[in-house]
């Protein structure tokens, strides 16, 4: 069975924007959610979890060995829009009211950021505007100019 004994938080978060930190934490929270559910297969909701999260299990219901890739596939296929919506609401709550790129809305910018960490998944590979998405991910990850609210972690 897949196991995980540590959570890796990228050191780049020390100079990342608030939105970058928030998106990274949401992404890591998705992994924690999956791991918790997988570790407790006797939970009464486990069968429902398996039915919803088909990228984590093979056709017989066995957990895939490469859970890192499987979980990224699941996040990309199922949760990008939800994560983007949460990030958008967070942005508004901290006073970010517009995208750092005038050509796209704040909602689109947040959706682009929701793809962070999902490169190489089938859904990402089929996503339109990958160049714009990658540019926004790189911008927020490095606190480049036109980023939204740089936050230094202690």
Describe the structure.
Helix content is 53%, strand content 0%. The protein is an all-alpha fold. It has one domain. Helix 1 crosses helix 3 (67-93), helix 3 (67-93) runs antiparallel to helix 4 (106-114) and helix 4 (106-114) packs across helix 6.
| The number of domains | 1
Number of strands: 0
Shape annotation = elongated
- SSE order, as H and E? HHHHHH
State Rg.
16 Å
What structural category arises from helix and sheet content? mainly alpha
The DSSP helix count reads 6
Distance linking N and C termini: 35 Å
Strand fraction equals under 5%
Mean pLDDT: 85
Largest sheet: number of strands, sense, barrel closure: none
Sequence stretches where pLDDT stays below 50 over 5 or more residues = 144-154
Percent range for helical residues?
A: 40-55%
Please write out the topology.
Elements: H1 18-39, H2 46-52, H3 67-93, H4 106-114, H5 122-125, H6 130-142
List keywords for this structure.
mainly alpha; 6 helices; elongated; disordered C terminus
In brief:
By secondary structure, the protein is an all-alpha fold.
């Amino acid at each position: 069975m897949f196991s995980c004994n540590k959570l890796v938080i990228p050191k780049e978060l020390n100079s990342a924007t608030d939105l970058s930190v928030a998106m990274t934490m949401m992404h890591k929270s998705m992994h924690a959610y999956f791991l918790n559910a997988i570790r407790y297969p006797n939970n009464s909701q486990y069968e429902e979890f398996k039915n919803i999260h088909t990228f984590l299990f093979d056709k017989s219901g066995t957990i895939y060995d490469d859970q890192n890739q499987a979980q990224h596939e699941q996040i990309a296929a199922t949760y990008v829009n939800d994560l983007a919506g949460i990030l958008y609401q967070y942005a508004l709550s901290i006073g970010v009211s517009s995208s750092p790129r005038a050509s796209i809305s704040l909602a689109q910018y947040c959706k682009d950021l929701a793809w962070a960490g999902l490169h190489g998944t089938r859904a990402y590979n089929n996503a339109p505007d990958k160049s714009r998405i990658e540019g926004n991910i790189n911008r927020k990850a490095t606190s480049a100019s036109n980023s939204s609210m740089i936050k230094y972690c202690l």
